[in-house]
Amino acid sequence: MDRRGELAFEENTFGYGGVPSHIVVVLTEQVSNAYKDFLRKKKISYIIAGKEQIDYDVMLDKFYNLFHIKRMMVGGGGTINWSMIQNELVDEVSFILAPIANGDPDGNRFFVAKDPFTSIKETAFQLKSVEELEYGTLWIRYSVKKM
After folding, report:
1. Selection from 63, 7, 55, 10 nearest residue 29 by Cα
2. CA 114 to chain centre
């Protein structure tokens, strides 16, 4: 999601788990034609979903109708993750907990409320499973409780 057209992609794919995946950027109508031309030159697909903010209903409709995507994994930062939760678009939260820490007070957070995109709102989860992986690492999965 790049509502203002600021991300400078080097490639048109992103590797996840050793599998290259084609990048599809979600833009708003405020993005310049120059940025859209940049994406076309890089052979990066994009959709426009919203005037100034991302319209999630339009975005999901376009993903389904244009790309035939019925299920997606969002591996975003804390603000994108939280906005998906706030818009009730998440069925499951899955994360890996590794036995390592650095104490960085400015480190990344899994969920971050950020104006004007999201607000602080309590959300509950139901534990689905915990699986122990190598080296004491845990794979934890939660379903989102409907309030």
Report:
1. 55
2. 15
Domain topology for 75-147: Dihydrofolate Reductase, subunit A (3.40.430)
Tens-digit pLDDT profile for residues 29-75: 999 999 999 999 999 999 999 999 889 999 999 999 998 988 888 77
> Which token pair is 104?
């960085």
- pLDDT tens-digit series, residues 117-142: 677 888 899 999 999 999 999 999 99
**What stretches of 4-133 show up as alpha helix (H) in DSSP?**
33-41, 56-67, 78-86
- Structure tokens that stand for 86 in this block: 């706030």
Q: Where are the domains of the chain?
A: 1-72, 75-147
In angstroms, the CA 71 to CA 86 distance is 18
Tokens 């203002």 correspond to what residue? 4
Instruction: Please list the residues that pair with 139 across neighbouring strands.
Output: 96, 131
Beta strands 24-27 and 45-48 are parallel
Closest CA to 16 of 77, 67, 75, 66: 75
What's this model's pTM, rounded to 2 decimal places? 0.72
**Six token digits for residue 118:** 């999201």
What are phi and psi for residue 108, nearest 5 degrees?
A: -65, 145
